Amino acid sequence: MPRRSAQPGLLPNARLVVDHFHIVKLANDAVTNIRRRVIWEQKGHRGRKIDPAWANRRRLLSARERLSQKAFTTMWNSLIDSDPSAQILTAWIAKEELRKLLALARTDTGRDQIAARLYTFYDWCARADIDELTTLATTVETWWPAIEAFIDTGITNARTEGLNRLLKQVKRSACGFRNTANSHRWIRFHCTRKHRAATAASRSLPAQS
Questions:
Q1: Rg (CA), the chain
Q2: Residue 75 to residues 64, 68, 91, 97, 132: CA-CA distances in angstroms?
Q3: In Å, what is the CA distance from 143 to each residue of 95, 136, 137, 139, 150?
């Protein structure tokens, strides 16, 4: 996935694709910002353990399918009771509608279904009339061609992002290498662990007759 600034000059024929991880993060950030604002408006202070919205902050950022029915019910009922404005749950639903749209990637879905889910997301954000959700919808609209490219191709740079994160962790834990060759070996050792483990496992399998 090329960077937008590099595409026109260096890669004129490339198709810009937005990784779904970044889009979901924007949605989660919108949920978090709304939760913090609502608590501050209601309580006059930051979230505390006794505040249901703060207590459910991790559930709000979790995908619906990763929540057990008990956890979902607990979150839903506590926020219904504690947030009369319903802004927090409205933001959570908007995030889930966006995730449903992104979930169409790699499913060979028709354009009509993509358009229907996109409309559902836009319509929900428009009806909510919450500044943070309006900003989120505007961002999705701005980047829609690249988001649509992700849904069409399913291309993601998740592996690259993961290796980059691992590389930074290794550099921090090493506290500096004076020998560049040793630094390269240490990074390569950590970045190829899964490949080496898979290779070792395949070699340990009995030969097929």
A1: 22
A2: 11, 11, 14, 18, 21
A3: 16, 11, 10, 6, 11
**Residue numbers of the chain with a pLDDT score lower than 50:** 1-2, 209
- Kindly report the length of the chain: 209
Burial of 63 (0-12, 13-18, 19+ CB in 10 A): exposed
Burial call 183-199: b when 16+ CB within 10 Å, e when fewer: eeebbeeeeeeeeeeee
**Of 161, 151, 162, 147, nearest in space to 18 by CA:** 147
Is this structure's pTM higher than 0.85?
A: no
**Does residue 125 come out as left (phi exceeding 0), alpha (psi in the -120 to 50 range) or beta?**
alpha
Q: What is the 3-state secondary structure (H, E, C) of 44-80?
A: CCCCCCCCHHHHCHHHHHCCHHHCCHHHHHHHHHHHH
